[in-house]
Amino acid sequence: MLERTRLASELALRAGELIRDAMGVRRNVEFKSAVDLVTDVDRAAQALIVEGIRGAFPEDTIVAEEDGLASGGASDGPSPSASAPTGPCWCIDPLDGTTNFVHALPHFAVSIAFLDDGVPVSAAVFDPSRDELFRAERGQGAFLNDRPIAVSSVAALDRALLVTGFPYDRRVHSELYLEYFREFLCSAQDVRRYGSAALDLCYVAAGRFDGFWEWKLNPWDTAAGWLVVKEAGGRVTDFDGAPYDPWLPRIAATNSAIHDETLAVLARIAARCGRSISSFGHPRLRRRRRGCSGRDTRSRRRPRSSGG
Questions:
Q1: Angle at which helices 259-273 and 174-187 pack, to 10 degrees?
Q2: How far apart are alpha carbons 227 and 246 in whole angstroms?
Q3: Of the candidates 245, 253, 287, which has an alpha carbon nearest to the alpha carbon of residue 78?
Q4: Checking DSSP bridges between strand 61-64 and strand 69-70, what pairing results, if any?
Q5: Which of 13-22, 37-46, 55-64, 88-97 has the lowest mean pLDDT?
């Protein structure tokens, strides 16, 4: 096991213990937006993790949810047009599922990933409520509490149990997000919504869910779960089938067997909803509008008929 993989697991466990001890205690809760919460526990867990990384690897870049830390000082976190930092980089979500935590709903996790030049190398996701540690290392498989895990064998979307989430701007774009939910609800066996993207991805890796999609997540939400799914035999891409990039706002993760069907549903929704969702205001997506096959699908105007 690589030293950074071991460190990710150790820090996830320590932060998880801190969160578990605080469960059910009245917290100082702040609103980052209309529906996005942060607590003193988020910040304390992040400080613990950052201190541990800084002590072992002081030159590594750190991208974290609360306060967006970076190598050499503070930053505002990844911008909408940002790409993954070059070199060694950690992506940290100290408490993924803060809303669940605040309401004493025991479904949240610590998520820590290490990437090298944008490629995931090590990952740890710890659920302190169930004492479940998901971890992965590139080329070494995925594990749950040291037992190997693998994605499900479900081969058809209409037999698949899916999971998703709704972005923080859901009050503004509710109709669009519900269009995705409705389409998959009619295409799959069923759909769940639990409130922690990190655990959603790990549950796909463990075969508890067969697929996952979501809009507008951040690198700290998905980087660890991305590697866990891949190492468990799953497939993770953008909505159009392009290689997944956690600095872009769309993710589709499945057990591989239903991935093409999942992409076909996503393409069907995109075609029906039109250009309004092709970029969703994201500069890098506007520069890369491709369809599921990977072909450029920008509209080409037909010459007007001259009449007769």
A1: 140
A2: 11
A3: 245
A4: unpaired
A5: 37-46
Q: Which two tokens stand for residue 118?
A: 């944008």
Q: Spelled out in words, what is the top-level CATH class assigned to the domain 157-286?
A: alpha beta
Quick one: pLDDT at residue 282?
Answer: 53
Q: Give the separation between CA 9 and CA 123, rounded to whole angstroms.
A: 8
Where in the sequence of the chain do the CATH 3.30.540.10 domains occur? 3-146
Q: Which residues pair with 246 in a beta bridge?
A: none
- The pairing of strands 37-39 and 29-31 is antiparallel
- Taking the model in full, what pTM does it have? 0.84
- Reported confidence tier of residue 80, pLDDT bands at 50, 70, 90: very low
Q: Residue 198: what residue type?
A: A
Confidence class for position 280, pLDDT limits 50, 70, 90: low
**Residue 168 structure tokens:** 């923080």
Q: Which two tokens stand for residue 260?
A: 């093409």
Q: How far apart are CA 43 and CA 101, in angstroms?
A: 14
DSSP letter for 112, please: E
Calpha distance 108→127 (Å, rounded): 6
Does residue 27 register a pLDDT over 70?
A: no
- Region(s) of the chain under CATH 3.40.190.80: 157-286
Pairwise CA distance, residues 164 & 266, whole Å:
13
Distance, CA of 205 to CA of 184 (rounded, Å): 20
What does the pLDDT read at residue 177? 83
Identify the CATH homologous superfamily for domain 3-146: Fructose-1,6-Bisphosphatase, subunit A, domain 1 (3.30.540.10)
| Pairing status of strand 109-116 against strand 88-96 | antiparallel
- At 237, the amino acid letter reads T
Tokens 């369809």 -> residue: 291
Q: What is the DSSP string of 85-100?
A: PSSEEEEEEEEETHHH
